[in-house]
Write a structure and sequence with these properties.
two-stranded parallel ribbon; 2 domains; about 425 residues; mitochondrion; ten-stranded antiparallel β-sheet; Thiol Ester Dehydrase, Chain A
């Protein structure tokens, strides 16, 4: 099975720094609602939608607090940004309902929202200036590099603990490593590891802004920092080799050609009239065009983040739920999430947008289903469509699933892209 024991990377062994004197059951540990209210305080976000324009105007004045050079900012250590947060599903049953799915386990989409909020708060903790109550930085999620799970099912009635810290820093970007653990028989056991990349921008979220450098303090931390550097290089390499920029490799071209030959009508071959046009589906297969689902979301003010754009965690939850439904209807049984990787946030989504989501099965192998969810906003006034995100999810189904078969060249490229993502995930786990 792909679910392996998570080896928790050595984190700075420091006590969690409390954000507020928490009301949660673990003494001193804040819960997710405190994380969100803390974020609102840091940027001065209004809880009333009607005041959002004025709140954004007030942020303009913070421009003067931005550093002109990274060297002007005090370096920070990994333990300076280390946070622990509790999700008290066991001790506070009243919050359980929001996290519950029909299979009586935890909704993974909600966990994605929590990870997104926590990642942003960790970065604000790293960049905090002692004398200032409000941060001049707008910190937003640029990329979910990867989330790997080692538990198939997350229990709905046991406390969850999130931990995390900044693990690598560039000039204007930060990598955050987070871990999620769940309480079983008095011990917290690992559920998932997540790596997010956040970017810092000016108070109006228009231009990049410098962040505090990070100083590793031990060989373990040196290793974690080096891994962050490698992750960055890997992303550049993956993007450079994108099928939108470069032709498939020789091996990939052979795969596509073999699949194509496999769909030609052999009856015609016997009659000596084989045609490129006449295609038939091989046994136990599904055409790619028949393995997609679409969804529409109206983006209401309720889903806004502290900068009055649509919250990235909400977009991830909606994309995940559509991806899950696509995998469920394709495999005919309950799918379990194995990995999330390479989610690029290309454009912010404005409140009031029409969000169009499209889920596609793009690669299958044994019990595994690789899903790609494409999200775009539609502007009803200009009638224009803009891609905002591409999401990649790897699911495992209870039973073996049919083979997905592309018919067109475009679908073949989606198939190869899905195969690349799947292969990268399998290497990790």
């Amino acid at each position: 099975s792909a679910y392996r024991l998570c080896i928790m990377r050595k984190l700075p062994s420091v006590l969690a720094r409390t954000l507020t004197s928490g009301t949660s059951t673990s003494p001193g540990l804040p819960d997710m609602s405190e994380v969100r209210s803390k974020l609102r305080d840091i940027v001065g976000a209004s809880t009333n939608w009607r005041d959002h324009v004025q709140a954004m105007q007030e942020r303009k004045a913070l421009h003067t607090l931005l550093a002109k050079r990274q060297e002007d900012l005090p370096p920070r250590r990994m333990k300076d940004s280390y946070l622990e947060v509790i999700l008290p599903l066991g001790s506070q049953p009243e919050i359980r309902e929001k996290y519950l799915n029909v299979h009586n386990s935890v909704r993974f989409g909600r966990i994605l929202e929590d990870l997104d909020s926590l990642g942003v708060l960790i970065c604000y903790t790293h960049t905090k200036q002692e004398m200032q109550q409000r941060s001049p930085l707008s910190i937003v999620t640029a990329l979910v590099d990867k989330i790997n799970l080692c538990q198939k099912i997350i229990q709905p009635d046991c406390d969850i603990k999130f931990t995390g810290n900044v693990s690598w820093v560039g000039k204007t970007s930060m990598e955050v490593k987070m871990h999620m653990l769940q309480l079983h028989d008095g011990d917290y056991s690992p559920v998932l590891d997540a790596t997010f990349v956040m970017v810092a921008r000016d108070p109006e979220n228009k231009r990049p802004a410098f962040v505090n450098p990070l100083i590793p303090e031990s060989p373990e931390e040196e290793e974690i920092f080096k891994q962050g550097e490698l992750n960055k290089l890997k992303r550049i390499e993956f993007s450079t080799a994108s099928l939108l920029k470069m032709a498939p490799t020789a091996e990939e071209r052979n795969i596509v050609h073999d699949m194509f030959l496999n769909t030609l009508d052999t009856r015609q071959e016997r009659e000596g009239t084989v045609s490129f046009r006449s295609r038939k589906l091989p046994p136990n297969s599904v055409w790619m065009e028949d393995a997609k689902l679409k969804g529409l979301q109206i983006c209401h003010p309720e889903e806004r983040n502290i900068f009055n754009r649509i919250f990235g965690g909400f977009l991830m939850r909606k994309a995940f739920e559509l991806g899950w439904a696509t995998a469920c209807s394709y495999g005919g049984s309950r799918p379990f999430i194995v990995s999330v990787d390479d989610i690029m946030f290309q454009k912010p989504v404005e409140v009031g947008s029409l969000l169009l989501l499209s889920g596609q099965v793009c690669y299958t192998e044994k019990n595994y289903i690789q899903i790609r969810v494409h999200s775009e906003v539609y502007n009803a006034n200009t009638r224009e469509h803009h891609t905002t995100n591409i999401f990649h999810f790897t699911f495992i189904s209870e039973n073996e699933v049919p083979q997905i078969v592309p018919k067109t060249y475009g679908e073949s490229m989606l198939f190869l892209d899905g195969k690349r993502h799947f292969t990268a995930v399998m290497k990790e786990i």
